Structure formats: C-alpha cells, structure tokens
Amino acid sequence: DLEWGDGFYNGDIKTRKTVLPMELSAEQMGLQRSQQLRELYENLSAGDNNQQEKRPSAALSPEDLTDAEWFYLVCMSFVFAPGQG
What we know:
Layout: E1 2-3, H1 26-46, H2 51-54, H3 67-75, E2 79-80
Antiparallel strand pairs: 1-2
Helix pairs in contact: 1-3
C-alpha cells in the first residue's frame, strides 16, 4: 500500500487573525502550516464531537483553509493498493 507520509504544504496560506511573534521565512511558514494541517487532519479524523473545546485557539479550523489546503488535507486520507493510481 502507498500511504500519505508527512508531506510538506507548499501552497498559498490563507491567514485569519494570525499574529506571528516574529518574522518567519517562507520555509518556516511552510513547515508550520504543514504541522497545522496534520493536526487539523488528526482532529477531523478522530471524529470527536468535543474537538472544538480541545483545539487551541491558534489552531486551524476548516474555514481557515484555501482550496489547495483542502486538497492537501483530503490527500492525507487516501491509501492506494498496489496497482491503483
């Protein structure tokens, strides 16, 4: 099986009420966004009804995502069997 690895989000970043304490390089912002997307995926895939309460206020929510980020997030859930794709 081919499964999604850690990946690296390298697209546009939609920002909403985001305050960065210091300037980050494009690479650092990409790494940070990749981590945020992984955390959001884990929260969404857990199916926990109380995820809003457990998620830190600075964490991503689905309405924060661009179309490209949604595609990246959905790709995390795919597993391809040998001969597929």
